[in-house]
Amino acid sequence: MLDELTTTVPPQEKLTLETEQGVTALELFFDLVFVFAITQVTRFLYQDPTWLRLLEALAILMVLWFAWSGYAWLGNTAGTDEGPIRVVVLSAMGPLLIASLAVPNAFGKDALAFGVAFFLVRVPHIVAYALLSRDDPTLRRVVVQLASVILPSAALLVVAGTVTGTGRAVCWIASLAIVYGGLLLSGTRNWRVNAAHFAERHRLIIIIALGESIVALGAGTGNLGTGVIVCALLGIAAAAALWWTYFDVVAAVAERKLREADGPTAARLARDSFTYLHLPMVTGIVVFAFGVKTTLAHVHAHLGSVAAVALTGGVALYLFALSLLKRRNIGSFNYPRLVAAGILAILAPVATHLEALVSLALVAAVGCGLVAYETWRYAEARDRIRHGT
Predict the structure, then answer these.
(1) What is the C-alpha to C-alpha distance for residues 198 and 182, in angstroms, rounded to an integer?
(2) Which pLDDT does position 10 carry in this prediction?
(3) What does the domain layout of the chain look like in residue ranges?
(4) If DSSP codes are grouped into helix, strand and coil, which group holds residue 335?
(5) How far out from the chain centre does Cα 128 lie?
(6) CA–CA distance, 279 with 239 (Å, rounded to integer)
(7) What is the C-alpha separation between 221 and 213, in angstroms, rounded?
(8) Cβ pair 235, 292 in contact under 8 A
(9) HSE on the CB side for 177, CA within 13 Å?
(10) Quick one: CA torsion of 281, 103, 73, 332, rounded to 10 degrees?
(11) Helix/strand/coil (H, E, C) string of the chain?
(12) pLDDT at 19
């Protein structure tokens, strides 16, 4: 398993060829608004935890994720937050904040506000790329390709705000199909990627998502009794296990594989490993955060079916995505994590018959048990990967 990853350590000569590019202060500032947006998704689901609401929350998160990912690619291409790029990115933050405020009613009374604001988030993205491509015909072709996918997809969300019922659902489905399918079908020819920056940007967004689970712990806390204290400690233990399973070796390996790849291969790898496969990871964390928030509010009650699936299934989805990430980068699955994900999936219906606190304890036990097993079983391989030997 993990010992296979040691083959990904690149030659030192390779490392020196890539110009290092760090995440800028402007990108971090932009991400603060995105933090609020994903917090709103948890609130949206918590208000009315039904299966339809869960599907709508996932759709909102997919839309927001692709917008954030687009700006991650933009920052990677621009390599700066100076001049026109600074103005364009800052101008997108206003509409993003409005879209975030509209999230709790994105399928209701604020559907049009959400659609228009989101469209105004996407337009500056294309404008910024157009500015960057003024003297670069190759990049200009990429911009045209992106615009042909991004703008129609965003426009459909505006249309969704003007219709109701089935029409609104159709517009959302079509919007997601165009943007995610279009990116996959159009390919990554002529795309460029700076591995160090791209990997760092996605590491930071995982931290942001994990931060949402911590916020959920605080937001769900009522009277600070023994049950709430135990629940909070179990929640932080589960969140720590999620952090460990990504940052211990996976994050380093993902960056190293991206560094090793040549231009066209690197672009495909960046799209698959980061743009696509980090989405279910972030989704799993956000859904788990909703489950934790519900658990803290009802420590000794039984969880409803949606909350139970969120609590156990969110972590299962996260671990499954990590295994897929290993499959994409290394060529094999991480079977201990698949087993843990399977156990958590089985626990979902069981959790509806247990106290919420007990259900969270089981989730934390599976996560921490997985970390303990991998730390013991792959100790030597982990050491080689983490220290580049």
Answers:
(1) 21
(2) 44
(3) 22-191, 194-389
(4) helix
(5) 23
(6) 17
(7) 13
(8) yes
(9) 7
(10) 10
(11) CHHHHHHHCCCHHHHHHCCCCCCCHHHHHHHHHHHHHHHHHHHHHHHCCCHHHHHHHHHHHHHHHHHHHHHHHHHHHHCCCCHHHHHHHHHHHHHHHHHHHHHHHCCCCCHHHHHHHHHHHHHHHHHHHHHHCCCCHHHHHHHHHHHHHHHHHHHHHHHHCCCCCHHHHHHHHHHHHHHHHHHHHHCCCCCCCCHHHHHHHHHHHHHHHHHHHHHHHHHCCCCCCHHHHHHHHHHHHHHHHHHHHHHCCHHHHHHHHHHHCCHHHHHHHHHHHHHHCHHHHHHHHHHHHHHHHHHHHCCCCECCHHHHHHHHHHHHHHHHHHHHHHHHHHCCCCHHHHHHHHHHHHHHHHHCCCEHHHHHHHHHHHHHHHHHHHHHHCHHHHHHHHHCC
(12) 59
Can you tell me which residue has the tokens 């499954």?
Answer: 320
Report the pLDDT value the prediction gives residue 221, as an integer from 0 to 100.
Answer: 64
pTM for the structure as a whole = 0.90
pLDDT digits (tens, 9 = 90+) for 215-272: 777 765 667 788 889 998 999 999 999 999 999 999 999 999 999 998 789 999 999 9
Pick the CATH number of 194-389 from 1.10.3470, 1.10.10, 1.25.40, 1.20.1410: 1.20.1410
- 8-54 confidence digits (pLDDT tens): 444 443 434 445 778 889 999 999 898 889 889 988 998 889 999 99
Q: What count of other Cβ atoms lies within 10 Å of the Cβ of residue 124?
A: 21
Place of tokens 């843990």: 340
Nearest C-alpha neighbor of 321 from the set 206, 162, 175, 149: 206
For the chain, the average pLDDT equals 89
The helix (H) or strand (E) run that includes residue 130 is helix 111-132
Each as own residue / partner, the long-range contacts of residues 136-144 (CB below 8 Å, 24 or more positions apart, any chain) are 138/190, 139/77, 139/190, 139/192, 141/190, 142/190, 142/191
Cβ atoms 104, 47 nearer than 8 A: yes
- Residues lower than pLDDT 70 in the chain: 1-19, 219-222, 388-389
Amino acid found at 186? S
